[in-house]
Design goal:
Elements lengths: L1 E7 L3 H14 L7 E5 L6 H4 L7 E5 L6 H9 L6 E6 L2 E3 L4 H11 L3 E5 L16 E3 L2 E5 L18 E4 H5 L17 H12 L3 E5 L8 E3 L15
Parallel strand pairs: 1-2, 1-4, 2-3, 6-10
Antiparallel strand pairs: 4-9, 5-11, 6-9, 7-8, 8-10
C-alpha cells in the first residue's frame, strides 16, 4: 500500500544517516523506497550498504530543482500512499507509518500526517482539540498561520500522504517553483491550493508527544538549481 520517496541532492553523508535511521525504526511493510537524486547518479559506494533493502535509485541527470524531482519520483508510484521525506532527517521511534495510516484512512480531508515532536513544529500552532481514531491520537495543524495567513500545514517534512491527493493537483511543478532564497514559498503556494479544497494537516500526539523524527540538515542548504527552477 505504501511507497517511500526520498529526495536527495549531493548530501550523501546526511542521506546515509537518514536511510540508516529509517530502516532501523520503520516497522511498516512498503512496496519499495524510491530515492530521487536531483542531479547525477548517487555514487555506488553510497548505495552499496543498502543493497539488501528494496530501494529504487533514480536521478534527474542534472539539477532540475526540488519540485521537478518530486514530480518525477511520484510519477513512478503506483501505491495509494506515499511516505515522503528528505535526505536530512533522523528517525528515533517506531510505529509512525502505522499510526499515520489510521489517521488518513479515517479522515478523507486530512492531507498528510506530521511526525515531528509537538514542540518541534517551527512554531506552527496546533488546534487544542485532540482527536482519536482507533486509539491513535492526533491534532490539526492550524490554518492561516502567520501574519499573511500563508501556512496551512502542507509540508515536505517526513509524513504519509495519499497519491490521489497529489494526482488531483496535476503535479506540483505546474503550481510553484522552488526558490533557494525563499525555500518555503513553494510549500506555501501548494498548501494554499489544498486549503482552498478544505484539506488540513495532522500531527501525531500519542504518548508524550515526543515525535518520531528530527531534522539534522541545519546549515547544509542546497544551492540553486541550474535547470528548470531558479
Amino acid at each position: 500500500m505504501i511507497t517511500g520517496v526520498v529526495t536527495s541532492c549531493r548530501r550523501y553523508d546526511l542521506l546515509s544517516d537518514t536511510l540508516n535511521s529509517f530502516f532501523s525504526m520503520n516497522t511498516a511493510p512498503f512496496d519499495r523506497l524510491i530515492v530521487i537524486e536531483d542531479g547525477a547518479d548517487i555514487p555506488e559506494e553510497i548505495r552499496r550498504p543498502f543493497s539488501h533493502h528494496p530501494i529504487e535509485w533514480i536521478s534527474t541527470g542534472q539539477r532540475v530543482g526540488q519540485l521537478a524531482a518530486i514530480d518525477y519520483a511520484y510519477s513512478r508510484v503506483t501505491t495509494p500512499y506515499i511516505f515522503h521525506f528528505e535526505d536530512d532527517w533522523l528517525f528515533y521511534r517506531s510505529g509512525f507509518i502505522e499510526r499515520s495510516l489510521v489517521v488518513l484512512e479515517s479522515n478523507p480531508k486530512c492531507l498528510q500526517v506530521w511526525i515531528r515532536a509537538l514542540t518541534d513544529t517551527q512554531r506552527h500552532p496546533m488546534e487544542e482539540f485532540v482527536h482519536t481514531d482507533l486509539g491513535v491520537t492526533w491534532r490539526r495543524l492550524a490554518l492561516d498561520y502567520r501574519f499573511k495567513g500563508e501556512w496551512h500545514g502542507f509540508s515536505f517534512n517526513p509524513g504519509l500522504r495519499r497519491l490521489q491527493d497529489y494526482v488531483s493537483m496535476g503535479g506540483y511543478g505546474v503550481h510553484a517553483r522552488f526558490d533557494p532564497a525563499n525555500p518555503g514559498e513553494a510549500e506555501s503556494r501548494i498548501g494554499a491550493l489544498y486549503r482552498m479544497r478544505d484539506f488540513y494537516a495532522a500531527i501525531l500526539c500519542d504518548d508524550d508527544g515526543s515525535g518520531y523524527v528530527r531534522h539534522i540538515g541545519w546549515g547544509r542548504h542546497v544551492g540553486p538549481a541550474t535547470g528548470s527552477e531558479p
